[in-house]
Amino acid sequence: MGETITIYRNADEFPNLEGVDLALIGVKEERGAIDNKGCADGVDYVRKALYQLFDHWPQLNIVDMGNVKIGKEPNDTYFAFNQVLTELMKNKIVPIVIGAGQDLTYTMYQVYEPTGKLINITAVDALFDIGNDQDPLSSHSYLSHIILHQPNFLFNFTNIGYQSYYVDAENIELMKQLLFDAYRLGSVKSNIELTEPLIRNANLLSFDISSVRAADAPGVKNASPNGFNGEEACRMARYAGLSYKLSSIGFFEYNPHYDINSRTANLIAEMIWYFIEGFSNRQDDSPTVDSTDFMRYNVQIGDSQDIVFLCHKITGKWWMDLSFLHSDDKRFERHHYIPCSKEDYDQAMRNELPDKWWQFYQKLM
Prior knowledge:
Layout: E1 6-7, E2 22-27, H1 42-51, E3 62-68, H2 74-90, E4 94-99, H3 104-110, E5 119-124, H4 142-148, E6 154-162, H5 169-177, E7 181-184, H6 185-189, H7 195-200, E8 204-208, H8 230-242, E9 248-252, H9 263-279, E10 294-299, E11 307-312, E12 318-321, E13 337-340, H10 342-349, H11 355-364
Parallel strand pairs: 1-3, 2-3, 2-4, 4-9, 5-6, 5-8, 6-7, 8-9
Antiparallel strand pairs: 10-11, 11-12, 12-13
Helix pairs in contact: 1-9, 2-3, 3-4, 8-9
């Protein structure tokens, strides 16, 4: 890939962004990365590993824009990063961020504010990173800053892979009260395909590399013996690439000073490769009111409202239709179709109300 993609090498040769599909961006801002000094150096290790992989997508125009310059204060870097992302997304270019601290997720979220649309965030993380509402922005508190940001345009937040022994019980209860999704590591590892609809519902995916077990990703300051394995991480990255809805992705917290033979850098590079592979196969399979590309299944549970499931005739992806919940707020219209799995349909057929349906029903009421 180092020979086939456009790489920003010299100051007078900045890549032309016209017709570009994907853009790699490095951000070496580590001052918000709690107890992970040295993670800023990881960006170029990932690049080195990525450039050695083969490019299978001649139809895609991919550029590497280099690294965002580090400002005198973290806020200076956040501002510059925001400007870069804004320009890319304005031109419908999907940014692939190789970052230091996961606090950069907050900046990625802010970029969506001018659109005036409610968005969904999915984080693959062993923690919730809520912190205290008075904590300064950091990798351990970025979610509270997102929740408290005004105006608030977060519709849903999903955590994939939290590990209970690292998470305060009060924070688990808070996630439930906010009607957010939180899935324990064990529940998704038993069937990794269940993460596909969770990722398909996201506009932004934030991937903390510490969610991968130490055996496969030792390059993390607080590496855990438990977590996703490398294959599962790559599958989730591919799901993100396939999602027509997802418009930005970031990989964070890799620290090469703890890595072994660049094992973690190679894994992140492969995850990015799988994201691009998924992106190359994207199809707009999202339901609309007038769409005829779906099989429609009405399931009645007791005396309650019928649950309507949609299954795309080609991709086989499932959705729940909540478009009967009409609202004067046009921002909710794009959230009336909820990605789900065949298992949700099977559960409804057993006369059991899927938790996901009830959760989003409450959000839209």
